[in-house]
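Purpose: get a first structural picture of the assembly so the mutagenesis plan has something to point at.
Setup: two entries, given in the order below. No constraints added.
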Amino acid sequence: MKEIVVISGKGGTGKTSLTASFAFLGGKDVIVADCDVDAADMHLLLQPDFANSEDFYSGELAQITQEKCNVCGKCAEVCRFDAIPLIRGRYVINPLSCEGCGYCARVCPTKAITNKKLNVGKWYVSNIKTGTLMVHAKLSIGADNSGKLVARVKSEAKDIAEEEKAEYVIVDGSPGLGCPVVSSLSGASFVVLVTEPSLSGLHDLKRVYELVQKFGLKAGCIINKADINLNLTEEIEDFLRRENILHLGKLPYDEQFTHAMTIGQTVIESDAEEIKKIITDSWNKIKHTIN
Amino acid sequence: MKIVIASGKGGTGKTTLSVNLSSYMAEKEEVILTDLDVEEPNSGLFIKADLLHQEKKYKMIPEWKEDQCTLCGICQEVCNFHAVIQLGKEIMVFPELCHACYACSELCPVDALPMIPRKMGMLSHFQKGNLHFVESRIDIGEEQAVPLIKQSHEYVNDTFPGEKTSIYDAPPGTSCPVIEATRYADFVILVTEPTPFGLHDLKLAVETVRQLKKNFGVVINRQGIGDDKVLKYCENENIKVLAEIRNNRKIAELYSAGKMIYTELPEFRKELDRIIDFLKGLNGGDIR
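Result (structure tokens, whole complex):
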């Protein structure tokens, strides 16, 4: 079983649309994992049935039992996150600032502080319209630990792939290069970078590729909206050659992606023949490279 | 006034709006633009200004002093992040997991884990005329954006005390970096696009700013590409739509080359005027 991770550095380059298209092309050979747990959108294209759901607990939050508190202020003194303000003569926890380090509870002389396990989201295993399974999740608003939820979604998807004897797990990653992205890269067989020919696209591609290199992973790249700026498309292609990144294909700037999305479809289900061909070729190249 | 430009979904036009709005406003008054998307900072690709100041940014992590350590194990026990682990006769520190809470360091009975600085990124401060631009950039491989965002706020608050017009380009999403970026906001502008992805992520962003009890409005970018569901949602939820930017390939082309939009397209400038008028109205005629 091989794991293909799709990331981009910059947001909005078309990661999710392409990942869903690959899922469609791969059919039963593919288990899908939506690891953009912060703003998960893949379900809008693949229509999961949310058949199984489970709460996800990770991290802790301090809680003060006011009856036990003698207002000594030790907790606020040791807190490095300014999470324990004194309000109307009482110390209270600001849940959005508390990082759950537990230091306050350890120094409280009256044992007024306890740590509560945090429910930071839910994850699901669903049947999707391509006849296969998808693991996806929803992180609670403002929650920390997105990296851990990503790790959980991925490991569930891998287990399912083993059970179902699926050949591939396809992972839709987050934008950026922080903890959820690092978490989605660990254990990958191949990385698909989705970029666009803008100064931002290229800048972000270079940064995220540096991260991919730290993991020593083999990567390929798809240039989306390639005709928006032909000079930059060439510059990106030079970069791919220099870095020995597989050129997977170039897609034109085309609103058919959006039209398909508006009716809850991947572009593969539409009649955009030219685009379908490019994406199919890219998918075949990916399969060929990793096998 | 501190205005944070955010969005749930990436690539909706946060940076485009941030750089154009701040440059346009800076034609008349002093404006501070801060790029808080420290993982992938892009505003600097559009702002050509002189570098005034640069500083390395550090986070504090514990360093093990073998000769002082009695291997009592308290450090490992108090670390909720598994960043300090005792392996045989050795204490190992995993800097990328460390939240710098100081518990291991300060609760160590023999001071064998003093906190030392570790570089996590770079802050740069540029200026061109009325426009100050502050950018923070996290080192690749460093996983936690929050400490750097926090320090960027501190730098801006210390460097520009008093009432200023300050615009912040936030990271995408709804998790901890976004919360930190919007912490001091007087007003949040959520940029979205009229598509199912745009709407879905806008709802998450709205839920986030409501939870933070922030005043906010929406800018719909690429109006015309998808459907009218974002507009209907805003109407139903009583959310102020500050501007609607028509979908225009020319904008994508200018953006791709790192160029300003408002100087080229009068209709885009008109939408910025709508936003500026609204913000002025909020603040008694002055955005400072």
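The CA atoms of residues 61 and 165 of chain A lie 40 Å apart.
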